[in-house]
Records
---
Amino acid sequence: MAVATAKRELVAAKGAEVEREELAVEELQAALLERLEAAYEEAKASWRPEVAAPTNWWDIMAVGPFSAPFDLGFPKPNPIVRVGQPVVIFSVLFLNPTPPPAPSPMQIIGGALLPYRITYHTNNVISMNPDPSLSGTVSGNLAPAPFILNAITLTPNTPGLYEVHLRAQILTALSTTMVPFAGYASRVDSIHASIFGPSGLVIRFEQPVRFDVYA
């Protein structure tokens, strides 16, 4: 009986820990969304009339990786973790709410609730081998909102330097890719107004997400 009770208490403790981690990720996601919205509003206030230019309908960026325990507010990404320590990467689909004229891309493709698919591919760049256990797919439907976030949690079990590439596709109702509605994410480690322009995201340096895992 004592052994059974101890096992139940251990399972309950692990369940409570998982719930706390999930809640922390939800709070971090809410903080990230708040910062993205504030940065975009700040960027809009600084724009000046410009010569008409093509509008980027959508884009994708990756923010992270983050590892627990998370600080209050919005912490800095932490690229150094232990074996078995989960890391969280956020994919951010940006639907441009600026009309070229109206309706805006956000209203057109977001209002249509089109399906999207995000695939993440993880490689150990020390061994130069892909890690299928840290790769996968996130699927969902767009919404008439400028930012659509997904939390991707990875738990590495082998030491090494890892590199994560995120690819996104916006699909039609027939699950075929809309051309040119496919792309890959650039890592962003600081959310500020300068990453947004009147025509869409302004990403100056394109790089994948990297994190180092030690034993």
---
Amino acid sequence: MIFIIYWQSRGHIDYLFANITWPSDQDRTTLKSIKLTIMFMSFSLSLITVIFGLLAYFVATEQYEYLITNIEAMDAYRLKILRYLFILINYLGSVIWLIVLIFYVVFCIILHGKFIRFNQELEDSKILGIW
């Protein structure tokens, strides 16, 4: 997360978006991979939301017998409000990590598609006898 803040402040993310173009309609496998990645990550985000929501519910209603987590670790300073802050910070950290992972995976898929297209163009130029 610190790298994202650093890259955003230095303008590296804008540079990435300016130089990497979205795949065209010819790259159907790349577009399909991107869509599947986004669907999988959306499912993961909803699963993380449900898990942290259930954790907050069980902590709020004090039904600790259903939890595997260590409640004493959440009560480090003997304030019950810190339990919810602990859950919120962990939830936000997980969501931000997932979003960063989505960007990384989508950029890698786009670059992989561009490398495949570049290799095909090289193969075509060898067949034509340019090289």
---
Amino acid sequence: MDDFKLIDVWVLLAGVGGAVLPVALRRQTHFSDALVQILCGVLTAAFLAPAVITYFFPQATPSVQSALTFLIGCFGPNFAVLTQRWMDSNGEALIARLFGRFFDPGRGRDDRA
């Protein structure tokens, strides 16, 4: 097997381990809840970790990549939940401010005249 493919598998395996850790440390009421938690962690690690590593750590060694992927697999779903809750409570005001900057019909007019 090519060394680069083996490294990719190892990094993904670290993400799986990170996704399993929170499930193993807490008591789950249902198997389906645990499975969804693990799947979300693995998907977060598989899709988010390469972007984070490429953007912030382009020269990272495979061991650093594995550590980051493990952490993203472990904490990524919780971070996504926190972000979603923040968007639910503050999203409307944020969107109104954003669209107000671009689409405010009074913006740029001189109201002193």
